[in-house]
Amino acid sequence: xxxxxxxxxxxxxxxxxxxxxxxxxxxxxxxxxxxxxxxxxxxxxxxxxxxxxxxxxxxxxxxxxxxxxxxxxxxxxxxxxxxxxxxxxxxxxxxxxxxxxxxxxxxxxxxxxxxxxxxxxxxxxxxxxxxxxxxxxxxxxxxxxxxxxxxxxxxxxxxxxxxxxxxxxxxxxxxxxxxxxxxxxxxxxxxxxxxxxxxxxxxxxxxxxxxxxxxxxxxxxxxxxxxxxxxxxxxxxxxxxxxxxxxxxxxx
Length: 252
Description:
- The chain is mostly helical.
- Helix content is 38%, strand content 6%.
- The chain contains nine helices and four strands.
- The chain has a two-stranded antiparallel ribbon. The protein has a two-stranded antiparallel ribbon with strand order 3-4.
- The longest helix has 18 residues, at 107-124.
């Protein structure tokens, strides 16, 4: 249903609401949508009354309560009409293997690691399902924590390849080593952005310490940090040096 309208999430939500009653309604064309839509449902209506929802039953009320939930309707508007995000999420997970978050990398090193992750993903994203020696498709059973003891069946893909590594090694030994100046010049030409903190004016350390006011500096905790460019609080001068210990203010 989400694929029937590419440009209008609101119309997708309206059709979702219409399908909630009998789960099968005619699909009428509307202006502004480039996708071809038929004037009738793609399959003939069922003659079996058991397959239709009776709007006067308690079961239908419960289904409508779930389908017409505000969060569900908000998610329906965001459904991807063409592509799914599972591949993008898989790429983000792969980036963590090449560039873990608990390690700090410089800009160029991070850029190179992202390139390696892209090479690996592009080479292995379209792997097919593996087969046994007898030619049967391979599956595996998993027990996700969210299933609370239940299992899911997923296919086993063929083993990943690293042919891009051979190509990079061939480039390194056959071209880079013989003429490193060309590649070094291209590397120096990369525009490396500055640190985020370099975008702001750095104050003098002595001035910053003099303007610093903690809520533990005043008896009763009324001290507050002064506004930028405003006067400092008087309570900071009343208490010379303060320390915090078990919620009490101790003066030295």
